[in-house]
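Explain this record to help learners:
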Amino acid sequence: MKRYIFILLSAVVALLGCEPQNTQQQNEVVFNFTPVEVTTTETTATITNRSYMTIDGRGRYDEATYYLEYAKMSDDEFVRGGDYSVLSDGYFMFTLTDLEPNTSYKARITIDGGEYGKKSCEPFPFTTKEAPKVASISCDAKAEAKGLFATIHLSNVAYLVNDEPQQIAFVKVEYTLTEANEWRYIEARGGSVKEGKIEFTIPQSGNEYLTENSDYTYRITITPQNDDYNEIRTDDFSFKTQYAEVSANFSTLNLTYNNGIAAEIKMVNLFYDGIAAEEIKSEEPVIYTFYYRKKGASVWEEADTEFSNGGMKATIAASLLMEDTTYEVKASVTAGTQKQVCETEVAEITTPKSEKPDTPISPEPPTGGDTSAIEGVWHLTEWRGVTPSFEVYMDITATGGITLYQRIENNYWDIYQSSAYIDAGVISGVYTDGTNWGASYSITLEDDRMIWVDSADSSDISVYTRSELPTHMPTAPTRVYTLQERFL
């Protein structure tokens, strides 16, 4: 019986020894996290580490993968990101970009061992650096230049730090004649900047005015109130001045008649670009002139004009005028580099009618007057040894009638008639208004030349040449016995 039990037990043992075993041995997996090293800029973070995993203590498990998760410190959810790269000696690196400056973040590294599981380290913090303070200015400039000054219009004026507007202490405009390079400046406090705009007129009152028709260079400097930042200046801009615009204010033009037209303007105020002439150091001469003409005529005549005590005066002599005729009168000022003319309104005045007869009295030669030897038309070609600058003609009849045509002090022909006689080679006469000639003359006749010598002044020698009256000569006196000085 004992033998049988032993054999049975042995068979059972042998049978059990032939069946497969179901027990599986567990591997030992260890995640080794080492301290991280983080370096940051304003927008990036570089995380260096050499964490690893082992299986059954056999060293680093090379099949593991690594990734990084991060979030802002105030956020709950992590996001996966960062560029992974392998370094030497088991180190690896994650690089994060597009971070915000001066911001706190948290991150964690995860080791993924695949079938052996994965694990993350405790979150570690890091903070990006503060962005550098970058200062800049904004300023749009436009110049509006006249002849003697310019207005600088500035818009979008700002001092910026990292694109944030700052309080402005001063805004300054510097300017110079481009060719001179001698800078002047105007400065205004920042409070003058309204809605990013400010205007400067250069030069300031009391300074020398700008030069006409010249090139200028200017630039803008903006100074912040915060002393931590420096003033910043723009690039150079430029403008060119024009010629100064001349204008004048005239008081009322007054006209009166007293043996001629008296014209007066009591006050003339002259301006250059709206600036009183007294303030301008101009070397250009100023010309003050009165003009007159018969109403309806096309040509203006100049009158001798006096300027004194800020006003203008002129007298147009009666000898230059026709009686009972309307005349137009105006005044002008010519000034500035381009000789600009400023004029008054035209005023009118009518000359009075003469009390003397409109037609001259026909000359009656004295008894015994015989001028047949010198009968004809004669032209004065020499006086006191020179060619005269004026015109004189005489039309002499055989019976002592002489018509004198003279154009001496103006453009009008004055015509006078007289009776004359010759006695012993000396001629004398009387005008039809009863006025005697100014002198008597000894006459010498040489063919077509006639020489008259003043009996009282032998240096007064007149040489006449036979001629014809000009075709444009009036047939009747243009004025009747004016106060014009008569040649004879």
In short: The first helix runs from residue 2 to 17. The chain has a mean pLDDT of 88.
